[in-house]
Amino acid sequence: MEWIGVLTGDIVDSTKLTSIERARLEERLNEGLTKIVGKQNYELYRGDSFQIVINEPSTALRTAIKIRCLLRKSLIKEDLYNEAKETYPSEKKGRNLSTLHFSYKKNVVDARISIGIGAKGYSSQNIKTSDGEAFQLSGRTLDNLKSKGQKLVVTTQNKPFNDYIDVICSFLDVFINNWSLQQAEVVYELLEGKKQIEIAEMINIKQASVSQRINTAHWQEIEKAINLFEKKVKEIYE
């Protein structure tokens, strides 16, 4: 049997974003998701919701965290975007700015993401018309996230596995919810496989500063959780 992962997500408090911020959000999502999963593996809805197909389910949690990093590190909110333009006026529209140059800020955009892992079902040319166990598990669980106050959950047909992973996701949520722009940027690059020295050179700061942000983001705990998830999913589904 072939197994897949499906990520269904929506932007937290998207109705509070202005039309300019919504357009900026859609642009960032399209750019980021194309890089993370490939253009053929995701679809946006209404500009503030998305669905992603993951052919290797063990990578689903890593991908979900990377997407939340993508959003939290992006200059979507107007005040952050304007500060970028004022601080670095030579950069056109502030698009190429490193958010790590800013003071610690938490006026960021985030998403609720529901991961469903299950048997591959009907595959259409469009993700929105595809169906199957993973799609159903992911979609149904997302509807319950808002009432529970969670932003990350994994659902399968394996209840013991669900209970096990739910505890891990709860702890991950606590860490991620407190990430600043700078911490999210560093974690994103770590998830991309970059080393501390590479990140430091890329953003022109000392490696000690990168190390500090890694520690305050609880990267070691995040990495352990991701590795454990990947190991368990491979044992069961791959």
Determine Rg (CA atoms, Å): 18 Å
Low-confidence stretches: 90-96
Helix content: 40-55%
Sequence of secondary-structure elements? EHEEHHEHEHHHHH
CATH class: Alpha Beta
Portion of residues in beta strands equals 5-15%
Q: What average pLDDT do the residues reach?
A: 88
**Class from helix and strand fractions:** alpha+beta
Terminal CA distance? 10 Å
Q: Tell me the total number of β-strands.
A: 5
Q: Which word captures the global form?
A: globular
Strand order of the largest sheet: 2-3-1-4-5
From the 3D coordinates, which CATH architecture would you assign?
A: 2-Layer Sandwich
CATH homology superfamily? Reverse transcriptase/Diguanylate cyclase domain
The total domain count is 1
**Number of helical runs?**
9
Major beta sheet, specifics? Answer: 5 strands, mixed
Query: Which fold name corresponds to the CATH topology?
Result: Alpha-Beta Plaits
What would you say this structure looks like, in words?
The protein is built from nine helices and five strands. The chain has one domain (3-237): Alpha-Beta Plaits. The chain has helices at residues 19-37, 60-72, 78-87, 133-148, 159-177, 181-191, 196-203, 207-216, 219-237; strands at residues 3-11, 42-45, 49-54, 111-119, 152-155. The longest helix is centred in the first third of the chain and has 19 residues, at 19-37. A hairpin with a 3-residue loop joins strand 2 and strand 3. The protein has a five-stranded mixed β-sheet with strand order 2-3-1-4-5, with helices on both faces. The chain is an alpha+beta fold and 238 residues long. Helix 1 (19-37) packs antiparallel against helix 2 (60-72), helix 2 runs antiparallel to helix 6 (181-191) and helix 7 crosses helix 8. The model is unreliable at 90-96 (pLDDT under 50).
